TrEMBL record:
This is Dihydrolipoamide dehydrogenase. Residues 19-338 form the FAD/NAD(P)-binding domain. Pfam families: Pyr_redox_2, Pyr_redox_dim. Binds 1 FAD per subunit.
Length: 480
């Protein structure tokens, strides 16, 4: 490049001075921007990709659209038990299914995009940001941002094991599913976590041949062995779920992904699939930020070490929020983290704690899976009692023919306080909110049982589990 070209390039680079620079315009980034502005600081938000949060574009909303179509198909096939007979087989038009998924997804994304575009233009920068030092950022080749503080809110992306590269373009991640124009004939799903279960079951109900492969026996986020075993058995009644699969070979032949594995009976089986969906976890988007140019200490994943209470990275004026820190990759948690990161960045060096709400997680499978409060794996053996209910004979569940499920609620032996629950069952998304509110208020099992329960409702199953826990607590008191 000659001297004139260097001069021209230098003239095209602008410098922006700001109090707070936010990298990422997703859920956490937008919350951080609003919090910084509300605190009276100048803030800019930098986005290197298309506007629209992970949830709206490739996460919770499009997946629920696919699940809704799957539920419609499933219900239409299972009316005979009610004495309602639909003439002829249920016909699923894959193109129509995916057209609705994409159009409604685009509508949700549009809401987010309009929200971002309502931010003053001077506060928005388009481009990939990378650190020059702790608080100076280079945005592509057009802007240098000199900030006093920085919030990293770059989100995450699917993590795919290198060995899956053998499948070539037959390998997809969940993001790709929502770009399909039609449904494929078959899909192998690796990873029976939240994404794998939701998409695997939905595709199966929409007529796609599905087999789900797992490692170590995990099913969704469940850690209670009894609930996990019940869930595995329940899902296997509908589609193949090998929660602890032994895969012997993976290869590509023509347009097919070919997988050889041992089935549930220990027999060696070779099957061909149109696609392989890798639902094998996510990784924080921090590898392009040039964090090596900062003084930050990085963990083994290359993520800055940070205080989970304040979200501050070491003693620096840098904060990290949302999926980028990989603590709780849920939308409501990302929003909370973004808010506190933005507030703390604005008020730095005076920082305050993040008050987390009650832990709550839902898997939109059928039956649904939910967890509230402490997980079974987090509890100290001998410190709690377990209340149990089966939904197989629960009144309202049987009325609706939704009577599959098992619930465990955990109560502290010393105080009688409700400390957590794991379960699979009908309307778990609704019951989970009741339990999350109870957990956050520190209610005892006795106080929860004093609340009203209508009849006949699925929540009466929860009451049965609470009564079981209360009876066990009473037995402990009598024994003492």
């Amino acid at each position: 490049m000659n001297t004139n070209q260097n001069a021209q390039t230098a003239q095209t680079v602008q410098t922006v001075q700001t109090d707070v620079a936010i990298i990422g315009a997703g859920t956490a980034g937008l919350a951080a921007y609003r919090a910084a502005i509300a605190a009276g600081k100048r803030a800019v938000i930098i986005e290197g990709g298309a506007y629209g949060t992970t949830c709206a574009r490739v996460g919770c909303m499009p997946s629920k659209l696919l699940i809704a179509a799957a539920e419609a198909a499933h219900e239409a096939r299972h009316t005979a038990a009610f004495g309602v007979h639909v003439d002829g087989p249920v016909r699923i038009d894959g193109r129509e299914v995916m057209q609705r998924v994409r159009s409604e997804r685009d509508r949700f994304v549009g809401f987010v995009v309009r929200g971002v575009e309502s931010i003053p233009q001077d506060d928005r920068l388009i481009g990939r940001a990378r650190f020059i030092d702790n608080t100076i950022l280079q945005v592509d080749d057009h802007t240098v941002v000199r900030a006093s503080r920085v919030v990293i809110a770059t989100g995450s992306r699917p993590a795919v094991p290198p060995s899956f590269g053998v499948f070539g373009d037959r390998l997809i991640v969940n993001d790709d599913v929502f770009s399909w124009e039609d449904l494929p004939q078959s899909v192998a799903v690796f990873g029976p976590g939240v994404i794998g279960l939701e998409l695997g079951q939905a595709l199966s109900r929409l007529g796609v041949r599905v087999r789900v492969f797992g490692v170590g026996g995990g099913v969704g986020p469940l850690s209670d062995p009894e609930i996990r075993a019940y869930a595995a058995k329940s899902f296997n009644q509908e589609f193949s779920l090998l929660a602890d699969a032994r895969v012997l070979e993976m290869r590509r032949e023509g347009d097919d992904a070919v997988i050889t594995f041992e089935d549930a009976d220990g027999q060696t089986v070779t099957e061909r699939f149109a696609y392989v969906l890798a639902a094998t976890g996510r990784r924080p988007n921090v590898d392009t930020l040039a964090l090596g140019n900062t003084a930050l200490e990085l963990d083994g994943r290359g993520v800055p070490t940070f205080d989970p209470v304040t979200l501050q990275c070491g003693e620096s004026p840098i904060f990290i929020a949302g999926d980028a820190n990989n603590v709780l990759p849920l939308l409501h948690e990302a929003a909370d983290e973004g808010k506190i990161a933005g507030e703390n960045a604005a008020l730095w060096p005076k920082v305050g704690p993040l008050t987390r709400r009650a832990p709550i997680a839902v898997v939109f499978s059928d039956p649904q899976i939910a967890m509230v409060g402490k997980r079974f794996a987090e509890l100290t053996p001998g410190s709690f009692v377990t209340g149990e209910v089966s939904f197989e004979d629960q009144g309202r569940s049987r009325v609706m023919l939704k009577n599959r499920g098992l619930m465990h609620v955990y109560a502290d032996r010393a105080t009688g306080r409700f400390i957590g629950a794991e379960w699979i069952g009908p309307r778990a998304e609704n019951i989970a909110h009741l339990l999350a509110w109870s957990y956050q208020q520190g209610l005892t099992i006795a106080a929860m049982l004093a609340m009203p329960f209508y009849h006949p409702v699925v929540e009466e199953g929860l009451r049965t589990a609470l009564r079981d826990a209360q009876a066990k607590l009473a037995q402990l008191q009598e024994a003492a």
